[in-house]
Design brief:
- It is a single chain.
- This protein is of the alpha+beta class.
- It is built from two helices and five strands.
- The protein has one domain: Double Stranded RNA Binding Domain (2-Layer Sandwich).
- The strands form two sheets. Strands 2-3-4 form a three-stranded antiparallel beta sheet, with helices on one face. A two-stranded antiparallel ribbon has the order 1-5.
- Strand 2 and strand 3 form a beta hairpin.
Length: about 90
C-alpha cells in the first residue's frame, strides 16, 4: 500500500516551451530552447531534436532544484505551466 499512498500524492506538470532557430558563433545553425515561466531555464542544441531534449532535461533539473530547496513548482497558466492532481503522460506530436 506504500506505493498507492505515494501515487496519490503525485502530481503532473506540463510546461510550455519555445524552440527558436538560432546561429552558433561560427554561423552554423543551432536552436535556442527555453521555458518562459521558469526564469533562467534556457538551453540550446545543434538540431531541433537536441534542443528539445536539452530543454526537457533543463526543466527536470530546475524542478529537482526547487523541490530540494523545499519550494513548490510554480503553476502559471498564462505562461504555460499546468498542474494535474494525478500522474499523467504528455505526448508531443
Amino acid at each position: 500500500m506504500e506505493w498507492y499512498e505515494a501515487w496519490k500524492k503525485m502530481k503532473s506538470y506540463i510546461f510550455k516551451i519555445v524552440v527558436e532557430e538560432d546561429r552558433t558563433n561560427g554561423s552554423g545553425r543551432a536552436y535556442h530552447a527555453f521555458c518562459p515561466a521558469l526564469k533562467g531555464c534556457h538551453t540550446w542544441g545543434y538540431t531541433y531534436q537536441e534542443a528539445l531534449a536539452n530543454v526537457h532535461e533543463a526543466i527536470e533539473l530546475y524542478v529537482e532544484d526547487l523541490r530540494e530547496a523545499g519550494e513548490s513548482v510554480p503553476v502559471d497558466t498564462e505562461n504555460g505551466i499546468l498542474e494535474w492532481s494525478t500522474p499523467a503522460v504528455a505526448i508531443n506530436v
